[in-house]
Amino acid sequence: MIEAKQISFGVKGKQILQPVDFTTDKEEFVVILGPNGAGKSTLVKLLSSGLKQSSGTISYYGKDLNEWTLDNLSKYRAYMHQESMIASNFTVREVLEMARYRYPETKNQFNKFIMDKIVTELNLHSFLEMEFNFLSGGEKQRVQFGRVLLQLESEGEIQPIKYLFLDEPLNNLDVRYQIELLKYARKFVDDKRGSVIVVMHDINLCYQYADRVLLMQKGKVIMDGRVDEVMNPQILSETYQIELEQIQALDGEVFYRHVSYSSNLLDKSQL
Ligand SMILES: Nc1ncnc2c1ncn2[C@@H]1O[C@H](COP(=O)(O)OP(=O)(O)OP(=O)(O)O)[C@@H](O)[C@H]1O
Question: Which residue positions does the secretion signal occupy (predicted)?
Fold first, then answer.
C-alpha cells in the first residue's frame, strides 16, 4: 500500500504541485494524464522517492518513506524516468545486470533465469553486447523497461504488492513496441505482481489500458477515479482546451478524436 497525504512540491517560491492525497492499496493500472507542465512527472517523482516533498507524508506499507533505506525500497518500487542517458559506457547487459545488484542473497541461478526470461520477452537479445548510449531512443526505452522489471523480481513469494513507476515510457517507441510495453505492464497488474503508475499522453491508449486515471492541470489533481468516470469527453476537452469527442465503434471499442475543423471550432477564414 502507498499512502500519500497532502503532499506538495515547490521550488524558489513557485508552487509546482498543490497538496494532494493519493492512496493505492490493490493491484491497479493507474495513468496520470494531463497537459504539458501539469505536474505529472513531479508527482511520480515524489511518490517514487525520486524527489522530496515540500510538505505532507508518504508511506509504503504503513512505514514512512524517510524510514526506508534505498536498498530495501528498491526491491518494492522501481522508477523508469524520461531521460535515458547513462553517464558511462556500460553495455546493455551491464545495465540490466545492475538491476540485480540489490539481490546479493539471490542465487545466481535465479538471476540468470530471470535475466534470460525478460531479455527474451522484451526481444532485447540483438543488442545485449552493445554500448547502451549508442542505442536508438526506442531501444533505450525497451532496455530501461527491462531494467525496472528486473529490479522488482524476487524469488518465491510475490507479496507484498510492488510498484512500477513509468514516466512517459512510450516515448520513441514504434507502434508495435508501444502496445507490447503496455500489454506487459497490464499483465504485471493482472498477474497480481503489482501496480503500475504511468505518465502518458495518448488518451486512446490510456482508455484501453487504465483502471484508474488521475487527471492533472496546473499543478493540481483535478480528478481521480475510474477510467470511465474521469475520461468524460467534456472534462477532457476543458482540461486540454481542445474539443474532443468520444466515439464508440460497432464492436464496442471506445476512442477519442479531435472534433474536425469542419465544425465551428476554428475560424474558417484562417484556413
Ligand atoms: N526543479 C524545478 N524548478 C523549477 N521549475 C520546475 C522544477 N521541476 C518542475 N518545474 C516546473 O513545474 C511544472 C511541472 O513540471 P512537470 O515536469 O511535473 O510537468 P509534466 O506534467 O510532467 O509535463 P510534461 O507533460 O510536459 O512532461 C513545469 O512548468 C516545470 O517547468
Answer: none
Residue nearest to atom 1 of ligand 1 (CA): 11
| Atom of ligand 1 at shortest range from CA of 42 | 18
Give me the mean pLDDT over the 81-98 stretch: 86
pTM: 0.93
**Ligand 1, atom 28: nearest CA belongs to which residue?**
37
Which domains does the chain possess? 2-231 (3.40.50.300)
Q: Which atom of ligand 1 is nearest to the CA of 35?
A: 25
Q: Does ligand 1 come within 6 angstroms of the Cβ of 169?
A: no
Model-level ipTM above the cut of 0.95:
yes
Stretch 183-192: mean pLDDT, rounded? 96
The alpha carbon of residue 51 and the mean position of all alpha carbons in its chain are separated, in whole angstroms, by 16
138 in Cβ contact with 181 (< 8 Å) = no
From 9, 40, 80, the mutation candidate for ligand 1 (largest count of ligand atoms within 8 A of CB) is 40
